[in-house]
Amino acid sequence: MALLMDHQFRQLPADKQVETRPFLEACSYLPYFIDCLGSTIFAPIKAEITGNLTKIKAVYDTNPGKYKTLQQILEGEKDMHGSQWPKVGATLALMWLKRALRFIQVFLQSLADGERDETNPNLLRINVTKAYEASLMHYHGWFLQKIFKAIMYTAPYKTEFLKSLSKGREVKDEECLEKIRKFLINFSATVDAIYDVYSKMHAELEYKV
Ligand code: EIS
């Protein structure tokens, strides 16, 4: 868990605005987190997240002052793109990225809450399925839903996953879960705040891929 704890998300200010630069900086470590799943099968997922981050950063870099917060990016693009918005630019990239972040949030929360299959306590399937249903399933057509099921069977054992989160060091599961709980405080607040912006600005799209 050293991996995530070394790159904490920032505590949100009272107005719950998410600052773009520190957000992108904290997210840039998520692809390494996906490496902890241990298989190259997850490379397309990593590429997805990296692609979203690159797109958001490209827009931010055009005017860091104007796009200081994620909400300002949505507002700026709404003005700029008219009827194409929100299926455009960083607004679209963040729409998908936030679903991946919610996946990670629900997955880690479920682990931290000790949810498990009592007959196979070392499997992650219950946690992964819960995360998928809460984040992405609704936006995937039958083909990607089938791919998800196939990928799920390649997930590592829980002990393996927790060990690689701790960069291979032997730490007790409970110690690692305690660190996950700490990480989740600011991470969950950030993900929830992004969802609130999309809801407030009517920027969420329901289409399936
Ligand atoms: C978006 O992708 C692009 O992201 C966006 C723009 O091009 C837009 C246009 O419509 O499309 O088609 C992509 C979609 N992204 C839409 C699908 C990619 C394949 C992903 C494979 C799906 C498998 C299910 C994932 C479940 C993983 C199970 C893990 C089991 C252990 C610790 C775990 C962390 C896993 C995090 C999972 C995140 C998955 C993210 C998928 C997102 C998705 O569905 S734009 O691009 O605007 O930047 O140009």
UniProtKB/TrEMBL annotation:
The gene is gltp. Accelerates the intermembrane transfer of various glycolipids. Catalyzes the transfer of various glycosphingolipids between membranes but does not catalyze the transfer of phospholipids. May be involved in the intracellular translocation of glucosylceramides. This is Glycolipid transfer protein. InterPro entries: GLTP_sf, Glycolipid_transfer_prot_dom. Residues 18-166 form the Glycolipid transfer protein domain. Belongs to the GLTP family. GO terms for molecular function: ceramide 1-phosphate binding; ceramide 1-phosphate transfer activity. GO terms for cellular component: cytosol; membrane. It is found in: Cytoplasm. Keywords: Cytoplasm, Lipid transport, Repeat, Transport.
